[in-house]
Design brief:
The complex is a heterotrimer of chains A (about 180), B (about 100) and C (about 350).
Chain A: H1 2-23, H2 27-48, H3 51-76, H4 85-111, H5 129-139, H6 141-162
Helix pairs in contact in A: 1-2, 2-3
Chain B: H1 4-24, H2 28-52, H3 57-87
Helix pairs in contact in B: 1-2, 2-3
Chain C: H1 4-40, H2 56-66, H3 77-93, E1 104-106, E2 109-111, H4 121-142, H5 146-177, H6 182-187, E3 192-193, E4 197-198, H7 207-222, H8 234-237, H9 247-272, H10 284-312, H11 318-347
Antiparallel strand pairs in C: 1-2, 3-4
Helix pairs in contact in C: 1-9, 1-10, 3-4, 3-9, 4-5, 5-7, 5-11, 7-9, 7-11, 9-10
The chains are: A mainly alpha (about 180), B mainly alpha (about 100), C mainly alpha (about 350).
Chain lengths: ~180, ~100, ~350
């Protein structure tokens, strides 16, 4: 009973924040709404018994990836979104599209799931760090090592792309834009 | 107790909001954030199914999804910075020509 | 076992006590800082308001309340108002995971001396530390001023970089303790080796003393204290990310900084210095209070170390700071993890 209340509270906050992400015009407000969604999802993970994942969601997603987003929004300082004619059409079609798509995905997930198991917290199934570590470092060792190479590639790519001198501008490009207020 | 289908419906709603956000928003960074919202919705579905089948493989897969999302966010934001440097705008409707 | 109402009542009492104690500790660590830095610089520090200047924090609090709360017209109001609240709330939340003593029995109710006992307590502390970057980043950006933006970008980049060294330096202790639960980590440090050296994690093997110093340096950088306080240095950036803040909102940042110091000192005490273990003697009520006293003494030692270093060292330049975090602390922390896991694996 108590878990049902908690699920509805955090689920409603998550959906409201996701709708707010779409409704806001300034990207910084959308970023903060996304952080709220991630925090609500972290508590929902706790309700399903994935405690390690809840902590990792807060540390990695809300505490590192979204910081990256907030940094870029702060640095570029592009301001609010304009209303071009394309965006007006897009918003009119947006709301029925959400309902349609959500219904389709939900029906697909539920129809193939004939014996759903209710979530109760009296079981012993808890995603504790030691249990996940057993899987991660034994059965999934190769993907683990591959992801470390992937992160290395991402770091190198990000450094090359974001460095100011000699990015993909060729000899026929227009004049460089005036110096930005880089820090 | 909460039936597992409630979590799946919530995941579907968040995923649909992410897809529609990707299609209707015009700011590059907000587009990218809608992609992150989709990934989060998928994470929730994974964890729900991990509970249902009592297998921790679902949770390990969420771990990998998060790592890939981190790598993708880093590279994607670097691309957005590079685009902003040349086009001086983050509006998707205005970056629709290959040559300025 | 506790019934649900007893549990709620006991938790509320613990929360109130913890908040009151923490806020008083924050206020008096400002007094301690001014006194100690004053004496290091061969002057007295506050000595007029009350004996030894002990009522100075009260005077400061009254000043903050009566000061004009100016909101400049060019700021981005929602985030400008939310940022100090976020900083303070996150700084005060992390105290709920810190255990300060053994289980006590009051009126027949047996309860541990912490607000919550979470199995992944240390991870949640690290998560709260990661989230406190937002208070700094949003404060600087919403102030719409160049000093604030520069200060906040530097502060956020510094905090994010040193979080890695902070987390990795704790992994050595975690490998040896085998648990993320703060109470279990402390319980493994009870007892003595060779009858008088306490079995604290800092004395264990060659690696943990290195991890302790890496943690100390990373903690200084996380809380934006000297020698890593360039983002809020008065002589360089006016006041960094809290330039445009006045009165109560500035006081919130101030309190958040000292509360973060106390949190970081508590984690260091719990993981490296054996938490609340110390000589126990006397009647039963003394035996319940003494662990709390030892814990408070160790945390006080840390805060004193923080203030001592503040009075002694000059500050790093920003590029030196970032180079130190990435090129020195991070490899040392990774090497510490490798050596510790080798030692533990060979012992099994």
């Amino acid at each position: 009973m108590f878990q049902l209340v908690l699920f509805f509270v955090f689920g409603t906050i998550a959906v409201a924040a996701a709708v707010n992400l779409l409704a806001q015009r300034h990207p910084i407000n959308s970023a903060l709404s996304l952080i709220v969604v991630m925090a609500c999802l972290a508590t929902l993970f706790l309700l399903i018994g994935a405690e390690f994942l809840a902590a990792i969601q807060v540390i990695v997603y809300a505490g590192a990836i979204m910081v990256l987003f907030v940094f870029v929004i702060m640095l570029l300082n592009a301001g609010e979104e304009e209303r071009t004619p394309g965006s007006r059409v897009a918003r009119l079609l947006g709301f029925p599209a959400v309902v349609l798509l959500a219904g389709l995905v939900a029906w697909t997930l539920l129809a193939r799931n004939p014996h759903p198991v209710p979530v109760e917290l009296t079981g012993r199934f808890v995603g504790s760090p030691s249990a996940i570590a057993q899987l991660l470092f034994r059965d999934f060792l190769l993907p683990f090592e591959v992801t470390s190479v992937l992160i290395l590639i991402a770091i190198m790519g990000a450094v090359v792309l974001a460095s100011p001198a000699g990015t993909a501008t060729g000899p026929g490009s227009p004049a460089e834009p005036p110096a930005k207020r880089e820090v | 107790m909460v039936p597992i289908s409630y979590y799946l419906v919530l995941s579907a709603i968040l995923f649909a909001l992410g897809v529609v956000g990707f299609l209707i928003k015009r700011n590059l960074i907000t587009l990218f954030m809608s992609i992150e919202l989709m990934l989060n919705a998928v994470n929730l579905a994974f964890v729900a199914f991990a509970w249902q089948w009592k297998s921790l493989n679902g949770q390990v897969f969420v771990f990998f999804v998060m790592v890939v999302a981190a790598a993708e966010a880093a590279v994607g934001l670097a691309i957005i910075i590079a685009v902003f440097r040349t086009r001086e705008t983050l509006n998707v409707d205005r970056v629709n020509l290959l040559k300025l | 076992m506790l019934t649900i109402t007893t549990f709620i009542v006991v938790s509320v009492i613990k929360i109130v006590i913890a908040l009151v104690v923490l806020l008083t500790a924050v206020a008096y660590s400002t007094w301690l800082e001014r006194k100690v830095v004053g004496h290091i610089q061969n002057r007295w520090g506050p000595k007029r308001v009350g004996p030894f200047g002990l009522l100075q924090p009260l005077a400061d609090g009254a000043k903050f309340i009566f000061k004009e709360d100016l909101t400049p017209p060019y700021v981005y109001k929602p985030l400008y108002l939310a940022a100090p609240i976020l900083s303070l709330v996150l700084a005060l939340t992390s105290i709920s995971l810190v255990p300060i003593g053994n289980w006590v029995t009051v009126d027949g109710v047996r309860t541990p001396l912490e607000i919550t006992d979470v199995n992944i307590g240390l991870l949640i502390m690290l998560g709260i530390t990661s989230l406190s970057v937002y208070g700094v980043a949003l404060a600087g950006w919403s102030s719409n001023s160049k000093y604030s933006l520069l200060g906040s970008l530097r502060a956020s980049a510094q905090m994010v970089s040193y979080e890695i060294a902070l987390g990795l330096s704790l992994v050595g202790v975690l490998i040896m303790s085998g648990s993320l639960n703060l109470r279990e980590i402390v319980d493994m440090q009870s007892g003595h080796v060779w009858a008088w050296i306490p079995r604290w994690n800092i004395f264990r093997w060659p690696t943990q003393i290195v991890a302790f110093f890496v943690y100390l340096a990373a903690a200084f950088a996380e809380t934006n204290r000297v020698p890593f306080d360039l983002p809020e240095a008065e002589t360089e950036l006016v006041a960094g990310y809290h330039t445009e803040y006045s009165s109560m909102k500035f006081a919130m940042f101030f309190m958040a900084e000292y509360a973060n110091m106390i949190t970081v000192a508590s984690i260091a005490t719990l993981l490296f210095l054996g938490g609340w273990h110390g000589p126990l003697f006397g009647p039963w009520w003394l035996q319940d209070l003494l662990p709390v006293f030892w814990f408070a003494l160790k945390v006080f030692g840390f805060i004193f170390l923080y203030i001592w270093i503040r009075g002694t060292l000059p500050r790093f330049r920003y590029d030196q700071l970032m180079a130190f975090g990435w090129k020195v602390l991070f490899p040392i922390a990774v090497a510490n993890v490798l050596v510790t896991s080798l030692i533990v694996a060979l012992q099994k």
